[in-house]
Design goal:
single chain, 158 residues, Chemotaxis protein chec, 8 strands
């Protein structure tokens, strides 16, 4: 069975006046040259999807097409209206779309965090606030609740 690579780690980068920054080197092979940068669902960060993963999400949304359903239309507007196709160059440099950059008042330092099959972009301020709100005991309780460390082939935990 082929091993799937998960995006992980926290990387601090700068953003220039034109909104350009770099993908972490470890993320480039997984994300590829064509990515989609989108507003996160919680509206406090952005998400970088490899184009094939975004295509899966878009297909799932298309399956929900029902213009009479206000919730579905709101979800479609949020996801499609805040997503942008972005190309990276050979060094991993890419431009964060101006509308997303302005929404978060991104001026200098950002944090790019691996999140499994995608990466998240945070302003330094927002990321630090999010991290300071979670204590070690909170994380331990969540890991236990969702059985994060159990073996897939049995019920024992690590």
């Amino acid at each position: 069975m082929a091993r799937r690579y998960w995006l992980k780690g926290e990387y601090t980068h700068t953003i220039d006046q034109k909104g350009r920054t770099y993908l972490p080197a470890r993320f480039r092979d997984v994300l590829g040259e064509n990515v989609v940068v989108s507003l996160g669902l919680s509206d406090d960060h952005m998400v970088i999807y490899p184009d094939f993963r975004y295509d899966e999400i878009a297909a799932n949304i298309e399956d929900l097409t029902d213009e009479a359903n206000e919730e579905v239309m709101h979800l479609r507007d949020h996801i499609f209206g805040n997503s942008y196709d972005v190309e990276t160059d050979k060094t991993g440099r890419f431009t964060i779309p101006p509308s997303l950059r302005n929404r978060f008042d991104m001026t200098e330092e950002i944090v790019i965090v691996g999140d499994g099959d995608k990466a998240k972009i945070w302003t330094r301020d927002m990321y630090d606030k999010r991290q300071s709100g979670k204590g070690v005991q909170d994380i331990q309780a969540l890991a236990s609740k969702y059985k994060i460390f159990k073996h897939r082939d049995d019920d024992d935990t690590l």
